[in-house]
Design brief:
mainly alpha, 8 helices, 2 strands, about 0% strand, globular
């Protein structure tokens, strides 16, 4: 680790050990639940139905999932450039959480769409298809990484894959503006959209999910660092155990 990385990594480690994100996650999470069920509009796309309330978590999970995969991309780049293990651990931890959020986005979107659009899935919708590509790409990243087993070459391969595969993320998020969307029309900056969502509640939910991501990321990074230390101690113990008596 070079002298430029050391203060940044130290700051991140201290932030990950803080209990503040956990308390804020609980506070904003409760606020989100209370506002969604007690204040938010359940009328969207010309339909008033309780299922529309799922949008207040579907959209935040999609947004924060994209942020998580962006962090994975940056971590992979930094690991390839510096070979510092912390960036690899950060990238993988963020990829795990991002993959979970992407999965939940697809599931909640299908449940929502079944009521609003009368279909679980529509292969002609560009947002759905490109988001599914993201799911497959990062499933592949996690599978490749799981085979690393401490191997530097496999870790670098997974990082290269994480860098190249990231191109699917921005493509999916701008897809509804690049191509005609059958179901998902742009809602931000689009005065013609049929979706009417309570912006203040959506913002609080986004912050709540973002804080949840930060909390989970810190927990996963700490677990991975602890696991790496345990493996290192096991390797050192095994080496000392098998050392010839004459070496002393």
């Amino acid at each position: 680790m070079n002298r430029y990385e050391r203060p940044v990594v130290g700051l991140l480690r201290r932030a990950f050990k803080s209990s503040i994100p956990g308390y804020l996650t609980l506070l904003l999470g409760l606020a989100s639940v209370g506002l969604v069920f007690g204040y938010a509009s359940d009328s969207m796309y010309g339909v008033s139905h309780g299922i529309n309330l799922i949008a207040y978590w579907h959209v935040p999970m999609a947004v924060v999932g994209g942020i998580a995969l962006t962090i994975t991309f940056l971590g992979c780049v930094l690991y390839l450039v510096t070979a510092t293990r912390f960036w690899e651990q950060l990238a993988h931890a963020s990829g795990e959480i991002g993959f979970v959020f992407v999965t939940l986005t697809l599931v909640t979107g299908s449940v929502w769409g079944r009521v609003i659009w009368n279909t679980w899935w529509d292969w002609s919708d560009i947002r759905l298809v490109t988001f599914l590509f993201i799911w497959f790409i990062y499933a592949g990243y996690l599978i490749i990484y799981s085979g690393a087993g401490g191997s530097g070459s496999v870790s670098r391969l997974a990082s290269v894959y994480g860098v190249v595969g990231f191109i699917t993320v921005p493509i999916s998020y701008v897809s509804t503006r690049l191509w005609t969307a059958r179901l998902h029309s742009p809602s931000v900056g689009n005065p013609d959209t049929e979706a009417t969502i309570t912006a203040s509640v959506l913002l609080i939910s986004i912050v709540a999910v973002l804080l949840l991501y930060v909390y989970l990321l810190g927990s996963r990074v700490r677990v991975r660092e602890l696991s790496a230390r345990v493996d290192s101690l096991k390797g050192r113990t095994a080496t000392e155990t098998h050392k010839p008596l004459g070496d002393d």
